[in-house]
Structure formats: structure tokens, C-alpha cells
Amino acid sequence: MSLRLLQLSDCHLSAEPHKAYRGQSADRNLARFAEAVRAFSPDQLMLTGDLSEDGSSESYRRLIDWVQQFELPVAWLPGNHDDRRVMQPIMDHAGFEPGPILELHGWQLVLLDSAWPGRPDGELDAARLKPLARLDPDQPIAVFVHHHPVPVSVWIDRVPLRQPERLWQALAGHRGLKFVAFGHVHQRFRRRMEPAQDQSIECLAAPSTAVNSLPDVERFTPGPCGPMARWFLLETNGCYRSGLLSLPRASSR
């Protein structure tokens, strides 16, 4: 049996539930997405940052209320819009797992915190990369982080993961590394890269559950797709599949 993993990112909920985010209701779009989550029937949820737009306790509590309807284990990490000091005790009280390493279905799932207070870009210093030294390099590895470690688009590449070579260097020699998954970019993205001669790693983005942008534009430009997430099917032998989960299409008459 595959482990059915669902990565949700960039919910951007505010303290005020009716406040608009980029012209749309983040709360309403998240609520609309519940049907798609149930249809996919995941075994584990991964929340990869910018869960809140303003770092408010109210936004985190509403997110938890929404997530708990699925009665699933949940892991999380913060994004640049989050406030870890506020969200940590709320997430802990809900029983959500902060990592940094989860061992599930023969896989090592790593959650790395790339967010720093007051900064829109991300960074992984030696202390935040330290958990990677505990990994079994030969067992399947998946890394989750908020900021993107590879260029994806014109507008969002102004605030990426800075000095991504630190991440690739820390992962050098980990033969079991399969992919690095991130949020932050508000668009679909999937590309394979080779940071070292003997490594081939897939980099994948989870689009936002709030609002997504067209790619390759100078400014955030909302596109036609609605709330989206990324799914993974993980096999114990290290094989995996991944794709995007979106709202069911309305039937035409």
C-alpha cells in the first residue's frame, strides 16, 4: 500500500475571516477545497508555510478547525508570513507534528524551517540544517521547506531560499534523497536537477490553497486555477508519484 501524502501550502488566512487576500477570500477557498481533500483520502497532511497572512492566533485556530475535520496526522513548518512564536503552542496543543524528521512507511520526511522574522526571503543556516546529519543516507528521503531552492519564475525569484548551495551540500551523499518539496511560489512547478554528479533530485512546488499566480510574469498575476495542493504516493521501496489536487470541475449542461 502507498502512503498517501497531501501537501497544503500558502493558505494566507487572516485574523478577520472575511478579509480579502489578493482579491479573493482565503477562508472561502480553503473551505471549498475540503471536498477534494476527502476525495483524495490522504494518510498524512504536510502544511508547508504561510498558513497565516498576519501571524494571528485567530487564523491558526481557524486553520486547525478546518484541518481537524479530516481526522488525520498533520506535520507543519512556518513560512515568511507566519509567526512561529504564536503558532508553535497552538499547533502543539492540536497535536500537530513540527518535525524535523518523521519516519513513515519506510521514508524519512524532513521539515526544514527557512523562515526568519521580518524577512520575505528564506535561509537555512548550519543549525537548521543539522537534522540532516541524523538521516540514514540510503533510506528514502523527502525534504519539505517553505522557500524555493531553485529559480521558478520572474516575480517570486526576488525572495527565494538564499544560498541554496548550503542545502545541496548538506544533502550530498544522501543516496536515498528523492525530492525537495516547497510552497511560497503560488504556482505549479516541477523540475529535476543534479546538484552533484551522482545525484538527481526532483524539485516540486505545491500551489496555494488561497490564490495562484500565472508563471513567468513580473508581478503576482492571479491565474484561472482555484485552490490547489500537491499529492504524493510513497512506496516503501523509494518509488513515488506526485501530482496536483484541485477543485472538481463543475459539470456543464
What does this structure look like?
- Helix content is 19%, strand content 27%.
- The termini are far apart.
- The longest helix has 11 residues, at 57-67.
- The strands form four sheets. A six-stranded mixed β-sheet has the order 6-7-9-11-13-12, with no helix packed on it. A five-stranded mixed β-sheet has the order 5-4-1-14-15, with helices on one face.
- It has helices at 26-32, 34-40, 57-67, 84-94, 126-129, 165-171; strands spanning 3-8, 20-21, 24-25, 44-48, 74-77, 101-104, 107-112, 122-123, 141-145, 161-162, 177-182, 189-193, 201-205, 228-234, 240-246.
- It has 253 residues and is α/β, with parallel strands linked by helices.
- The mean pLDDT is 95.
- A hairpin with a 7-residue loop joins β12 (189-193) and β13.
- 41% of the residues are buried.
- The protein has one domain (3-246): Purple Acid Phosphatase, chain A, domain 2, CATH 3.60.21.
Descriptors:
single chain; Purple Acid Phosphatase, chain A, domain 2; alpha/beta; five-stranded mixed sheet; 15 strands
Shape: globular
Q: What oligomeric arrangement do these chains adopt?
A: single chain
| Secondary-structure content class | alpha/beta
The first-to-last residue Cα distance is 38 Å
Mean pLDDT: 95
Segments where pLDDT lies below 50 for 5+ residues? Answer: none
State the gist of this model.
The chain has 253 residues and is of the alpha/beta class. It has helices spanning 26-32, 34-40, 57-67, 84-94, 126-129, 165-171; strands spanning 3-8, 20-21, 24-25, 44-48, 74-77, 101-104, 107-112, 122-123, 141-145, 161-162, 177-182, 189-193, 201-205, 228-234, 240-246.
